[in-house]
Amino acid sequence: METGSRTTEVHLPRRVVTGRGCAARVAELCDDAGWGRVFVVSDGGVEAAGLLARVVEPLAEAGRLAGWSTAVPAEPPLGAIDALAARIVSSGADAVVGLGGGSVMDATKVAALVAARGGTAADLVGIGRAKRRGLPTVLVPTTAGTGSEATRVAILTDQASGTKVGVVDAVLLPDIAVVDPALTDLLPPLVTAAAGMDALVHAIEAFTARVATPLARGLALEAARGIGGALERVCRDPADTLARDAMAESAHLAGMAFSNSSCCAVHALALPLGGRFHLPHGVITGTFVGALVRFNAPAAAADYRRLAEALGWEALEPEAWAGRLDALAERIGLTTVLRATTVPTAALPAMARDAVANRRLMDPNPRPVTSADAEAIYRAVLTVGP
Q1: What pTM value is reported for the model?
Q2: How far apart are CA 12 and CA 152, in angstroms?
């Protein structure tokens, strides 16, 4: 892709630490950065899996633990972010660690901003509204998929409307990202599959987006190479640590890729569907990507051939590649989960309008999507009922 005279920017975490077992270094990394007291954000699932202790205990032993919270819900509402920010402020923390999946990391990024600048999370919804950095953050993913530890995006829920909203700003990028594949070893199979497929969609959309930078395209291809060799392996054998390591690193690269490019129509369609029916995000993106490859093929066939080849599937034409993506989603269990939910026909027009109205995601898509197109894609992929 030629950028011509277009100005591009690079948005990356300030420091990245990767490797099996590196989460044990969080206290050391905070000490290196000169932060006195640290607040840890997580959720109940991470705590129950025994992962929270791996970070909290070394911080406590070092005398740096200001407090912690495991009260972050899935698809966190704006009000929960404000409550979390208040707890961070009352703790007197100098920095915040987010340990968890995408919801935890997104909540951490925005709460650290609110804690430093005041106001509410709702004030930050949109693009570039934060203006300045919040409290320093360390983001530690416990899934291999969202890439949130590498992005300038946080997805939250507007509890008044029930819709998902985005906070997009370069100041959301963490001071330190810690990618430890060992934290993903005990993930349930569906979470592994959904998160991994979402990472693949990040790579696909980052590579084909109209705003993609050369850096983003290189990162996306490398992410696709890693995912192609590891996703099905780890779904078949959760104890395959080499595959888990590859997925963790590849998901991080895919996050870097779309942070320097964009996600596109797959994610635009996913947001209103997920907001209304509370389906796992990766289940939606992983089952919709084949349909969008077919739709975008007239504008992105050459890019899709390169991505297919990077995955190790040869330089397939878009229809054949879309079929392979559909088959992959079915083999790893995502299609079954999606089709177990019946979406009322009456819900489709509003979802289609909301998806198309998300210009942040639709404008970069390789091919324009109308409301009629979006509704047709929903009908093609979903189980639609009366």
Answers
A1: 0.96
A2: 8
Length of the chain: 386
| pLDDT computed for residue 3 by the predictor | 53
Query: In CATH, what number is assigned to the domain containing residue 357?
Result: 1.20.1090.10
pLDDT on residue 161: 81
Claim to verify: residue 330 and residue 269 sit in the same structural domain: yes
Provide the strand spans (E) within 159-208: 163-168, 176-179
**Same structural domain, 74 and 167:** yes
User: What is the CATH number for 75?
Assistant: 3.40.50.1970
Give whole-number Cα distances, 280 to 111, 259, 336, in Å: 23, 21, 12
3-state secondary structure (DSSP) of residue 41: strand
Which mean pLDDT values do the consecutive 10-residue runs of the chain (386 residues) have?
69 96 96 96 96 96 96 94 98 98 97 97 95 96 97 93 90 98 96 98 98 97 97 97 98 97 98 93 98 98 96 93 97 97 97 97 98 98 96
Site of tokens 């320097």 = 260
Are 368 and 227 in the same domain?
A: yes
169 and 204 in one domain? Answer: no
Say how far apart CA 104 and CA 98 lie, in whole Å: 6
Give the up-direction half-sphere exposure of residue 352: CA atoms within 13 A in the CB hemisphere: 18
Which residues, in sequence order, are bridge partners of residue 337? none
Q: Does 6 map to a domain?
A: no
- As a whole number of angstroms, the distance between CA 257 and CA 199 comes to 10
Answer yes or no: do 235 and 133 share one domain. Answer: no
pLDDT at 33: 96
- The pairing of strands 137-141 and 163-168 is unpaired
Write out the residue range of the structural domain in which residue 146 sits: 15-184
Tell me, what's the pLDDT at 6?
A: 76
Strand, coil or helix: 50:
coil
